[in-house]
């Protein structure tokens, strides 16, 4: 046997054929679009100045928050909370059943998300660059 790096197009037909039966068995259906990824970006502005941003994607009924950040001089003014509320609104509208994110373990960010109703699903020891992270979620 030989294993080689390939261009995805070379294996696309194989993937479609093989995953069809797995999806039908696991989910009771197969629809190529059920795995489409929608990428979203939100910006929070105050007098034309960007003061916060959120990046997230929606895939298979799951919202995945990638980044949420507020300008350092604007923290604790509700911007992050407003961004997360908008993320949740969009995810609900798109039919998501759950939102998921990863953040620093035992941090101010973790406590922020907990106040928004997120719970820790797992502690990820020495995860990103050797730093402990936690996986959090909220069911919508």
Secondary-structure map:
Blueprint: H1 8-27, E1 37-46, E2 49-59, E3 62-70, H2 79-93, E4 98-104, H3 108-115, E5 119-128, E6 131-139
Parallel strand pairs: 3-4
Antiparallel strand pairs: 1-2, 2-3, 4-6, 5-6
Describe the protein's architecture and organization:
The structure is a single chain. With 140 residues, the chain is α+β, with helices and mostly antiparallel strands. It has two domains: 1-35, no CATH class; 36-139, Gcn5-related N-acetyltransferase (GNAT) (Aminopeptidase). It is 31% helix and 40% strand. It has three helices and six strands, in the order H-E-E-E-H-E-H-E-E. It has helices spanning 8-27, 79-93, 108-115; strands at residues 37-46, 49-59, 62-70, 98-104, 119-128, 131-139. The chain has a six-stranded mixed β-sheet, covered by helices on one side. A hairpin with a 2-residue loop joins strand 1 (37-46) and strand 2. The longest helix is centred in the N-terminal third of the chain and has 20 residues, at 8-27. It starts with 7 loop residues before the first helix and ends with a strand.
Main sheet? 6 strands, mixed
CATH superfamily of the largest domain: Gcn5-related N-acetyltransferase (GNAT)
- Indicate the overall shape: globular
The amount of beta strand, in percent, is 35-45%
Q: How is the largest sheet built, in terms of strand order?
A: 1-2-3-4-6-5
Elements, N to C (H/E): HEEEHEHEE
Radius of gyration: 19 Å
Instruction: Provide the number of structural domains.
Output: 2
Task: Count the beta strands.
Answer: 6
């Amino acid at each position: 046997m030989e294993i080689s790096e390939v261009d995805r197009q070379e294996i696309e037909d194989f993937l479609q054929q093989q995953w069809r039966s797995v999806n039908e068995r696991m989910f009771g259906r197969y629809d190529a679009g059920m795995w489409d990824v929608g990428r979203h970006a939100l910006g929070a502005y105050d007098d034309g100045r960007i003061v916060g941003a959120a990046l997230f994607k929606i895939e298979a009924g799951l919202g995945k928050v990638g980044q949420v950040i507020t300008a350092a001089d604007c923290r604790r003014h509700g911007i992050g909370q407003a961004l997360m509320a908008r993320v949740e609104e969009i995810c609900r509208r798109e039919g998501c059943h759950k939102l998921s994110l990863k953040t620093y373990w035992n941090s101010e960010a973790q406590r922020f998300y907990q106040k928004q109703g997120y719970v820790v699903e797992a502690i990820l020891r020495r995860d990103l660059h050797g730093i402990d992270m936690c996986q959090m979620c909220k069911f919508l």
